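Thread: quick sanity check before group meeting

JM: Hey all, I'm pulling together slides for Thursday and realized we never actually wrote out the predicted structure for the chain we discussed last week. Dropping the sequence here so it's in one place. If anyone has concerns about the input, flag it before I start.
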Amino acid sequence: MAATFITYGEPCDFMPEALCSEVAKRMLAVLFAQKTDFEVTELRRLARDDGKVSDIIVVDCVNDQVPSHNPFGVKVRERLALVFTDHQQPEVRALREDFPNVLHRYHVLPNEPSSLCLYFEPWSAIERSWTPQNFLQRILWWLRETAKGTLHRADQPLEQIYYDSPYKIVLPPDFQTKIQDDSLSLILGFVQQSNAGFRIVRGRFQPKGQAQGHNLQQTEVLYLTLPAIVHGPVEMPPNILGEVHDQLELRGAPFLAELIGLIRGKCPEQGLERNPLLRCLLVLTIPIKRTPEAVPDRYEIRAFQSDKDLAALGEATGALTLHERKFYAIPLLGSGKQEETIAWRGTSLLPVDVRFEADAEFSRKASAVDPNTAHFNGVLAGVGSLGSAIAWLWAKESWGEWTFVDADFVEPHNTVRHIATNGFIGEFKVDAVKQITEANYHPGYYRAVGIPDTVLNKENRLIQQALSESDLLFDVTTTVEVLREWSWQDDLCRSASVFMTPSGNSSVLLFEDAKRLMRLDCMEAQYYKAIINSDWGANLLEGNRGALWVGAGCRDVSAIISDEVVQLHAAILARQVRLLRDRPEPCIKIWRSDQETGAVNTLDIEVQESLRCEITGWHVVWDVGTQRKLAEARRAHLPEETGGVVLGYIDQKLRVIYIIDVLQAPPDSQSNAAEFIRGFEGLETTLEEIARRTARVVGYIGEWHSHPAFTSAFPSQTDQFLIESLASILALDGQPALMIIVGAAGDISLSVKTADAC
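JM (edit): ok, ran it. Output follows.
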């Protein structure tokens, strides 16, 4: 029985020119060239609801690795729609109407063809190495593994019944909410301690209108600065107003006249009524000097809580006069008798020591932070576990004013390692970190900005403004895209990038120099170079203890690392970045911890001067260390030629080739004064070890060889034939070919060749 297919999109001309997307054109060229597993049947176009237009290449995929009559319903020949939309992940739609309801498919609208979920990683990571060739290989892999029933990993949870909704509610077992607002009226609240007592009174402000109905005690502050007194014997604090006045009067600082004037100044013209909820707080600033002739050495602040409201205290001191249930500042005739003006002396007081909430100045002083370099604007991209812990430490020290940028929100499992607590579940991480860091200070005394978005979104005006106004960019996104994109933007300020290794045993810091002559992407490359060439690099990026599946989605994985480890490396990195910012030079540093003993050792990687050039539309990035290594290898083998393999990686999006290192000639290589033929002995093992050490980042990207004495590095006809041949081979993976030639007098040439898809 013939298969029936779902129509997807509208037909268009069967020509490459009919396609809008450059990626779709590249894919069509590869499909026409390979003519094996995929047969192009037609081109279509889809107008989407958001105004975007998608190119569709309809193919018949013939996959002879799919078992015939497999129980999952995948066929050897499947008709697929390859869908390309600018700035979005390419899609694969199965057009067969009865395509099986298997795992690992994306949600689609009713009556739309199935969408295959090809990748575990997000598109932001995939696009760095995506090519049409590996995309086609991924399709074949998905169909094959699905047909065999092995696509779903054994340690992966079963797929959920329904797709995730964009709307989420997380109900905690216990939930309370409190709202605190700034005000012009001081409200005093007692801090209830665990033994049912209290020793601390906290003051905060409320709008006057709200303060009237507040169930906490309202306070009228009577603030007086007294004349300086000479220090003397320590006395017991008095508990009535008369004793306070008498003690200070003996030392030359009477305050009754000033207090009466202050009370009268606070009384409105329309009079003052009694307020049983109001209490007066007398705050005295008392300058202390060593001798009568000396200037004050310090200022002591003392406070006394009265049991009277302003009207009652004014009446007791004679500052206010009662008339028809209101108190006025104008004294009535005949009311100034001595016996009527001494009632204030018995006013009960509660002595209170005054302490001030920490401000930026105190925090920096207490944390040994240089105040001359602590004030600057910074952008912190990525406030996950590590980023939020670092942000918290810097807020404690009041080091910098930060804009936090992160698109994620707090999920239930995040509270294990994130500074966000249970009450922040469902909120954006930037909002949680902003609120938590600001809460370390009195409202308004520490300011952070949170932008819930990816830091590379160039359409977000707030992000672009923050980047342009920043003095330091700090990347804790744990992804390569941020540090690489920042590295190619000349209008940005000095940047740093930090991350932890998968096991949590180590942390890494890449820090640009003050003039940005050494960019982050260059240091990333040299970091991998050090891993390859150092004994400690053998296990630096070894895997973690396991994967903890925290959700039902196939990408929802959380590493098993304790918050102790996160906090350890956060403290190291926060301090080192703070100290190194005051130094102009670049640095690459690694901290390795022994989780059993707690010992931490530091590795400083020498930063080599970077080299950048552009060849046939590709940027090439390497360093003078590799350049010297090539020259020394040539010199050591003269008069014969020599050569070997070039190691590195390629960023397809930025079109950058990163040269990490070069390997010497394998032992079975053939060479003389006129030619060099590279051998293979041990090379596969070496490349596999390099790939393992670098978590599959670094690999083979090309060849190098030397020219004999008195010969330049200009490619010969044989060299040109070789790179053409190499380009044809690497084109199968969508990669360009690189050739380095080392000539006389330190002459080095680089050639990059991209072959047509084949």
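AS: nice. Confidence is low (pLDDT under 50) at residues 161-183, 333-339, 547-557. The chain has 17 helices and 35 strands.
JM: adding both to the slides.
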